[in-house]
Amino acid sequence: MRTTEANIQIRNFHPTDLPYLYKICLKTADSGKDATQLYKDPFLVGQYFAAPYANFEPDLTFILTLNEKPYGYILGTSDTINYYKWLNKYWLPILRKRYKIPEQNDKTKDANIIRLIHNESYLKNELSDYPAHLHINLLPEPQGMGMGKKLIYTFITKLKQLHIIGLHLEVGKTNTGAIQFYERVGFKVIKEYDKSIAYGMKL
Ligand SMILES: CC(C)(COP(=O)(O)OP(=O)(O)OC[C@H]1O[C@@H](n2cnc3c(N)ncnc32)[C@H](O)[C@@H]1OP(=O)(O)O)[C@@H](O)C(=O)NCCC(=O)NCCS
Any idea which fold 5-145 has? Predict the structure, then answer.
């Protein structure tokens, strides 16, 4: 079947989507491209950047399906401070036991995520006016059809219902496609870091 809008849908998260979150996360983790070859452990990126959000705030996790199968998602939290408290207390401790702290000279992609897992996650000061944050990832098939924009709209609509005042995200400087997308849908630069940029939107 052709990839037309007719067989594409956005729906709420269901627990059976969980393996697809890990898969889609990995397949878009190299500046938006497939990172399968870059990681020894295929679950690592999803353990930090996808699955915990669907556990913490499933009502804010939306799935893009193509012929009923997940091909993309938007997920995040309405309250980054509380999310990181939960992440540090309930989600990361068991992973810290599984993945040992890497050697300082270990520059592999796996090591970078394992360091994130071992560090305490926190909301940066400059982002405090933007309490919600998001991650959006689509496999190549449904990209460029306006579905990313629709997912952002769905996410923002839910945040507004919850009376949330602002939303932020962080994107790697090498992900130029995503940067253009975020600017197109209305995000403004909050701060530039060494390798990434924080974008925000007041709601
Ligand atoms: C980035 C991403 C979410 C965009 O979703 P999408 O469905 O492809 O984008 P849309 O079709 O909704 O595009 C919306 C607008 O952004 C623009 N846009 C989207 N991708 C773009 C790109 N790569 N380059 C330039 N502009 C782009 C579109 O031209 C469109 O503009 P318009 O409103 O004037 O028509 C999606 O391509 C994706 O998931 N990429 C891989 C994973 C990724 O990089 N995620 C972000 C991690 S921080």
Answer: Aminopeptidase (3.40.630)
